[in-house]
């Protein structure tokens, strides 16, 4: 994740940089879901059964702490579909692990909303466009209204929820609407995710936007981040799965704050770009451990081996290479002057298109001049 707003605030105010001392794990606790989203990487199915038992999950939680995991994002399928989800989250919090929730919001109601707010440090609800587009993209009529009702319910009970939006050819017409929506309903975070080619994302490669469109959207997000801060709006902008956003961001930041450019670059270098297998991991609904949710290769399974042994395996050539910084990559990455900031972007996209984990990210939209830093 690339936290534009937090970086602007911290550097311009002279605050210490925010460094994650540990790892984040995205855990797909279930493959069950009440929606059928076009971009879903999990092939979520409402009729499937949960593979991981409560006992297996509970046994793994201390292993997360042992491996240095500080945050777990509860995902799915739809995580609230599991009856033991609060029990799991409570056990993580007892271990000092922060819990985030990624949900479509359709299972939030008056009976559980207070419990959700008390349990999760952050709640992200997916909105993928205006009502018609969202419902079509999510595969359920009325889904848009129910998701907005969930945000309103959380706010009514004293909590706050952010909006999660994935840019695709089908949702791009609603891109600007998402910012208007966030402003109107008063959420505190907008998370914009770029499409990764995996799962249904690979099947629907044709729904991705062009590089030219991506550049325009990224420029808009960067401008919005500055605007919100200058206007005093408490709306943070975060982007995901496109670490090249940091390069355009640095360019704009340098124009506005030339005397702070070196400090911002220092912090971007510390952030380090794509962190799959290094500061980011995934456990899928069958217990497979992967460097990120989209990764084509598993590195172990928690039903067969302890998570800490899998994650801390110094003999894994794959993990060792992923953890190099900057990574040694081919294509345009091999001569890029900013490889130490973006770290080459998504290895999952590289594999999906080139069949090579160490090829360039095919979605990189930077020009040759920008890659040279000119």
**What structural class should be given to the helix and strand makeup?**
alpha/beta
The number of helical runs is: 16
Helix-strand pattern, N to C? EHEHEHEHEHHEHEHHEHHEEEHHHHH
Give me the Rg, rounded.
20 Å
Q: Which segments are poorly predicted (pLDDT under 50) over 5 or more consecutive residues? A: 35-39
In total, the number of strands is 11
What spatial order of strands do you see in the largest sheet? 1-8-7-6-5-4-3-2-9-10-11
Question: Distance between termini?
Answer: 26 Å
Report helical residue fraction: 25-40%
Biggest β-sheet: count, sense, barrel?
A: 11 strands, mixed
Inertia-based shape: globular
Strand content bin? 5-15%
Round the mean pLDDT to the nearest integer and report it.
91
Q: How would you sum up this structure, described in words?
A:
- Strands 1-8-7-6-5-4-3-2-9-10-11 form an eleven-stranded mixed sheet.
- It has helices at 4-13, 54-66, 85-94, 113-119, 131-138, 143-156, 175-185, 200-203, 211-231, 245-256, 261-271, 307-311, 317-322, 339-342, 347-354, 368-371; strands at residues 2-3, 23-28, 69-75, 98-103, 122-126, 161-167, 189-194, 236-240, 280-283, 288-290, 300-301.
- It has 16 helices and eleven strands.
- It is 40% helix and 14% strand.
- Strand 6 (161-167), helix 7 and strand 7 form a beta-alpha-beta unit.
- It is α/β, with parallel strands linked by helices and 374 residues long.
- Residues 35-39 have low confidence and may be disordered.
